[in-house]
């Protein structure tokens, strides 16, 4: 059973014929799904469907990226819906702030919050969402999310424009990355546009998926600078505190952290560590703490809510990031925004993120990180570091979500001007880009998917799917007396006047 | 009774929708779905009998055939008695309550009444149903422990499943009546 919101229904209903009536754009092959988007194309606005396995209540970079980007796109007048899989009891349709609609589809979760993929089973539900929301652009996020790849595949079959944002870096050497890279090649070879979060990530994605670099854009992530403001009063200036906020997993270099802690603690008696986050590598840190008797000086805070992160950050002087691989590190921007000195490993896209005077970059080894930290500790002791407020001022305009949304909008415009490949061209592209074996297999899958779509169009014709009322976008109904008793009454009266004629029924 | 607009259910089968105005505070909505079609009954019977004859041919046991007769009869009885709903009625009386009744093909009727003090609101909601996402009308019941909470949801027109245009009409006139009662 879905959410019990009612505001979306209370407002007057626009009949779907409003938008169907115009026909300036010649309908293409799968016109049932695309003919309905003319209203959007004419107004210059898009109807965007963000698809990813990762969304709230799960926490992380991708999740907040999708949420913030969607909010800023709504602010710019686009219609946005989010599709993800059901999280426990949270399934059905929900509304978030400003009428952001989220579909939690009941698909089976397989591994690490990623859904199982068969390439077909999600088509009925995704088609229903695309048709009823009159989607024009499908924007998939994260290469770890199989649902995102499925959605790209189905969207291309249905003739919709597609976009993909890659949030992570991959290797090339081991078997699992070879396989994932092949799948990514297949998935991205006929996607209209791809977005990466940093130039390093772009290079990586272009190489992995054998793409034309011209269809890959770079749009960095952003932080909300008002959430991360410095508060020098909160920190204890008698000692120096190093803050680490990350998931405690191998990728984040927690083993390096386990080597740094005893070395520096032995050298500096007034040094403290404050570590926020949870994960399998917590054991490493607990072991170190136990072995060197550092219980007062190394505090493990466990899992943090996003709203608590700032409160932890402002307690420290130095922010340490030990990631081994990172496409774009949001954490160091958050740290700098709170006015901390940032020490980080020089990996992936991290060198692109902050100007040199705000960050100390080290090699991902214990000795190099210790050197870097010592340098910063000395500077901190001598009072040679700029005040937190100055750092915050410098960072706050670097990465904002509004800017990200503006740039993403341009990419949507560009993607929408490109043609969606019809099936024969798509099969040719698959076979020429993805090698003989994988190309043939996935051409076959694409054909089956197309036949399945035809079957679904026969079983549940598109004209039987009710067009959903828009909570966001040009025809938005959100906020029309939402949740207020008084306006509920006036609304009722208005409907009364409008509908009296229709409801005159004989006894 | 008098309705110009054509209504269908979510599968595209035509349904009849009628609205009776007894007084400004009392209204009755009836949604009638199409009658049990002879073709479908024949199809069901044929399938069962074909299966039964295959079973009989393989086993040479007449019990299979008698079982098939029982299955056909019982299946039909149960279907018209518990599954096939001919029409569903929603009677809303301002300040008193809402009565829901559904008449099965066999003539059996089941009726429930919800008093107005338990009703928080009537809304149109979205749900995922059988690989589709549909709109349905439902009554929100008040939660007595929490002032703003909703204790449960009672779906309306569950077996006929009308489409959104029909639901919106019912919704608006229900809101009109609920809006008038303090």
Automatic annotation (TrEMBL), chain A:
One Pfam family assigned to this protein is PIGA
Q: In which pathway does it act?
A: Glycolipid biosynthesis; glycosylphosphatidylinositol-anchor biosynthesis
Coiled-coil ranges (or none): none
Its membrane topology is listed as:
Single-pass membrane protein
Q: Which reaction does it catalyse?
A: a 1,2-diacyl-sn-glycero-3-phospho-(1D-myo-inositol) + UDP-N-acetyl-alpha-D-glucosamine = a 6-(N-acetyl-alpha-D-glucosaminyl)-1-(1,2-diacyl-sn-glycero-3-phospho)-1D-myo-inositol + UDP + H(+)
Question: Where does the UniProt annotation locate this protein?
Answer: Endoplasmic reticulum membrane
One GO molecular function term of this record is: phosphatidylinositol N-acetylglucosaminyltransferase activity
Residue ranges constituting the Glycosyl transferase family domain according to the UniProt record: 233-380
Q: Which InterPro entries match?
A: Glyco_trans_1, PIG-A/GPI3, PIGA_GPI_anchor_biosynthesis
Protein family membership: Belongs to the glycosyltransferase group 1 family. Glycosyltransferase 4 subfamily.
Question: Which residue range or ranges hold the PIGA GPI anchor biosynthesis domain?
Answer: 85-174
Q: Which GO terms describe its cellular component?
A: glycosylphosphatidylinositol-N-acetylglucosaminyltransferase (GPI-GnT) complex
For bias type Polar residues, the affected ranges are 11-37
Task: List its EC numbers.
Answer: 2.4.1.198
* Gene3D superfamilies for this protein: Glycogen Phosphorylase B
Q: What does this protein do?
A: Catalytic subunit of the glycosylphosphatidylinositol-N-acetylglucosaminyltransferase (GPI-GnT) complex that catalyzes the transfer of N-acetylglucosamine from UDP-N-acetylglucosamine to phosphatidylinositol and participates in the first step of GPI biosynthesis.
Superkingdom field: Eukaryota
Membrane-spanning residues: 436-460
Q: Classify the main location.
A: endoplasmic reticulum
**CDD domains hit by this protein:** GT4_PIG-A-like
Mind telling me what this protein is named? Phosphatidylinositol N-acetylglucosaminyltransferase subunit A
Automatic annotation (TrEMBL), chain B:
Any single GO BP term: GPI anchor biosynthetic process
| Any single Gene Ontology cellular-component annotation | glycosylphosphatidylinositol-N-acetylglucosaminyltransferase (GPI-GnT) complex
Keywords tagged on the record: Membrane, Transmembrane, Transmembrane helix
| Domain Phosphatidylinositol N-acetylglucosaminyltransferase subunit H conserved: residue ranges | 89-158
Q: Residues of the signal sequence?
A: none
Asked if the keyword S-adenosyl-L-methionine belongs to this entry, the reply reads no
Membrane-crossing residues? 37-58, 64-83
UniProt cross-references to InterPro entries, sorted A to Z: PIG-H, PIGH-H_dom
- Say yes or no: keyword Transmembrane helix present: yes
Involved pathway(s) = Glycolipid biosynthesis; glycosylphosphatidylinositol-anchor biosynthesis
The family classification in the record reads: Belongs to the PIGH family.
Q: Which protein is depicted?
A: Phosphatidylinositol N-acetylglucosaminyltransferase subunit H conserved domain-containing protein
Q: What is the organism field in this record?
A: Silurus meridionalis (Southern catfish)
Q: What is the lineage of its organism?
A: Eukaryota, Metazoa, Chordata, Craniata, Vertebrata
């Amino acid at each position: 059973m879905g959410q019990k919101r009612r505001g979306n229904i209370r407002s007057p209903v626009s009949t779907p014929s409003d938008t169907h009536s115009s026909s300036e754009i010649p309908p293409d092959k799968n016109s049932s799904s695309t003919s309905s988007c003319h209203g959007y194309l004419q107004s210059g606005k898009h109807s965007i469907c963000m698809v990813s396995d990762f969304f709230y209540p799960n926490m992380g970079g991708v999740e907040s990226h999708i949420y913030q980007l969607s909010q800023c796109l709504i602010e710019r007048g686009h219609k946005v819906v989010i599709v993800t899989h059901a999280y426990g009891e949270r399934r059905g349709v929900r509304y978030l702030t400003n009428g952001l609609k989220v579909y939690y589809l009941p698909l089976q979760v397989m591994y690490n919050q990623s859904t199982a993929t068969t390439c077909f089973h999600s088509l009925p539900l995704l088609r229903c969402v695309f048709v009823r929301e009159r989607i024009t652009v499908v924007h998939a996020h994260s290469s770890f999310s199989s649902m995102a790849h499925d959605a790209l595949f189905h969207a291309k079959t249905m003739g919709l424009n597609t976009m993909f944002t890659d949030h992570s870096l991959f290797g090339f050497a081991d078997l699992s990355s070879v396989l994932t890279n092949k799948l990514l090649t297949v998935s991205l070879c006929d996607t209209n546009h791809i977005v990466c979060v940093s130039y390093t990530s772009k290079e990586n994605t272009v190489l992995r998926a054998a793409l034309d670099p011209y269809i890959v854009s770079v749009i960095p992530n952003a932080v909300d600078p008002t959430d991360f403001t410095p508060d020098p009063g909160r920190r204890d200036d008698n000692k120096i505190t190093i803050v680490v906020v990350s998931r405690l997993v191998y990728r984040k270099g927690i083993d390096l952290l386990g080597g740094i802690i005893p070395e520096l603690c032995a050298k500096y008696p007034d040094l403290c560590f404050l570590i926020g986050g949870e994960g399998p590598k917590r054991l490493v840190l607990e072991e170190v703490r136990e072995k060197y008797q550092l219980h007062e000086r190394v505090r493990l805070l466990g899992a943090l809510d996003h709203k608590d992160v700032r409160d932890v950050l402002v307690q420290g002087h130095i922010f340490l990031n030990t990631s081994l691989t990172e496409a774009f590190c949001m954490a160091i921007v958050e740290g700098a925004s709170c006015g901390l000195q940032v020490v980080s490993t020089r990996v992936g896209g991290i060198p692109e993120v902050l100007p040199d005077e705000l960050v100390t970059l080290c090699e991902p080894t214990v000795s190099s990180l210790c050197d870097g930290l010592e340098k910063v500790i000395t500077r901190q002791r001598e009072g040679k570091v700029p005040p937190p407020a100055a750092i915050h001022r410098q960072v706050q305009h670097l990465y904002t979500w509004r800017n990200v949304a503006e740039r993403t909008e341009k990419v949507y415009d560009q993607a929408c001007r490109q043609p969606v490949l019809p099936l024969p061209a798509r099969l040719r592209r698959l076979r020429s880009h993805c090698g003989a074996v994988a190309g043939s297999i996935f051409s076959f899958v694409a054909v089956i998917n197309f036949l399945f779509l035809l079957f679904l169009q026969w079983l549940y014709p598109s004209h039987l799917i009710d067009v959903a009322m828009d909570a966001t976008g040009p025809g938005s109904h959100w906020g029309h007396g939402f949740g207020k008793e008084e306006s509920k009454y006036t609304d009722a009266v208005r409907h009364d006047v409008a509908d009296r004629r229709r409801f005159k029924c004989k006894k | 009774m008098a309705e110009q607009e054509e209504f269908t259910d979510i599968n595209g089968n035509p349904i009849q929708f009628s609205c009776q105005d007894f007084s400004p505070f009392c209204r009755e909505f009836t949604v009638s779905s199409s009658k049990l079609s002879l073709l479908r009954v024949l199809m069901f019977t044929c399938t069962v009998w074909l299966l039964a004859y295959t079973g009989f041919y393989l086993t040479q046991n007449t019990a299979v055939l008698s079982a098939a007769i029982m299955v056909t009869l019982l299946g039909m009885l149960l279907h018209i008695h518990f599954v096939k709903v001919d029409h569903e009625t929603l009677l809303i009386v301002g300040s008193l309550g809402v009565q829901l009744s559904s008449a099965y093909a066999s003539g059996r009727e089941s009726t429930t009444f919800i008093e107005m003090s338990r009703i928080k609101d009537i809304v149109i909601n979205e749900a995922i149903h059988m690989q589709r996402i549909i709109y349905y009308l439902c009554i929100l019941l008040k939660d007595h422990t929490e002032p703003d909470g909703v204790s449960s949801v009672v779906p309306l027109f569950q077996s006929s499943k009308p489409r959104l245009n029909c639901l919106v009409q019912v919704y608006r006139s229900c809101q009109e009546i609920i809006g008038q009662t303090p």
